[in-house]
Amino acid sequence: MERVRPPAVAGSFYPSETGELGSLIDECFLSSPLGPLGKQQLSPGIIGGLVPHAGYIYSGPCAAHFYARLDDSIRRVILLGVNHWSRGANAALSPWDLWRTPAGDVVIDRELNSLLQERLDFVQPDELPHRREHSIEVQLPFLQRVLKEFTLLPLSLSYLAPRKCRELGQTLADLCTASSRRTVILASSDLSHYLSPQKTEELDRLALDKVLALDPEGLLDIVEDKNISMCGVLPAAVLLFSINALGGEHAHLLKHCHSGDVTKMREVVGYASVSFER
């Protein structure tokens, strides 16, 4: 019998009712300069992306700027998430066979799961980092909306040394290169947390400059040196190592905003969508 991970944040981060969820995602796409879903100018050269993971009313329109560019030739998604709870394995694969959302079930890529475990001894299946975590889950309804059929490798990350980030990124790139299935690698991350809009802009730009320069070491250094509260810095660094190994040359900042753009507040959270292409 297949094991199923039930949704953990449906009804809070995004609607739990299928029709309401679809309507909200459509509204998010309307905020994209590419317009309603189905009328986008797709980018077949995309190999990766950085996307935010807050509640849809805050970061959904920002995320839609990236998802509007995906085409349905993609057959596999590697999704690097944050272990906000810092529980369990530092690089945790999914022990479930399916991940459920109100839009249906997403199939876990068992082959890729096995290959990654064979290559890296610090990567292992672990339920604990994923069970209550939202950073991966909130991306799935968007992926289900824009892709026809795909398998998923969800990987929750915490407390990885730069050497292991590099090793993981290179290994993911190798596995992508060895496969005939078109794959994208995504990193789920918000940017600065609970600062003034002005300070958020300042610190976000320091981090985004390193992301756009395809500089994973620089990103890790600037986040530590400037104490930038970018929750997904490890997923982003692993992503950048992968993009470099895959020959990525172009990074595009599609949208940068913060929660105060939706609801006026003194302390905000920063969001960005970035695409990576060869």
Overall pLDDT level: 95
Radius of gyration: 17 Å
Count every beta strand, where a strand is a DSSP E run of 2 or more residues.
12
Ranges where pLDDT stays below 50 over 5 or more residues in a row are none
Shape verdict: globular
Structural class: alpha/beta
Bin the strand percentage.
15-25%
Topology of helices and strands:
Blueprint: E1 4-5, H1 18-30, E2 46-51, H2 56-67, E3 76-82, E4 91-93, E5 98-101, E6 104-108, H3 110-119, E7 124-125, H4 128-131, H5 140-146, E8 151-157, H6 162-178, E9 183-188, E10 193-195, H7 197-212, H8 216-225, H9 233-245, E11 250-258, E12 268-277
Parallel strand pairs: 1-5, 2-9, 3-8, 3-9, 4-7, 6-8
Antiparallel strand pairs: 2-12, 4-8, 5-6, 10-12, 11-12
Structure notes:
The chain is built from nine helices and twelve strands. It has helices at residues 18-30, 56-67, 110-119, 128-131, 140-146, 162-178, 197-212, 216-225, 233-245; strands spanning 4-5, 46-51, 76-82, 91-93, 98-101, 104-108, 124-125, 151-157, 183-188, 193-195, 250-258, 268-277. Strand 5 and strand 6 form a beta hairpin. The longest helix is centred in the middle third of the chain and has 17 residues, at 162-178. The protein is globular.
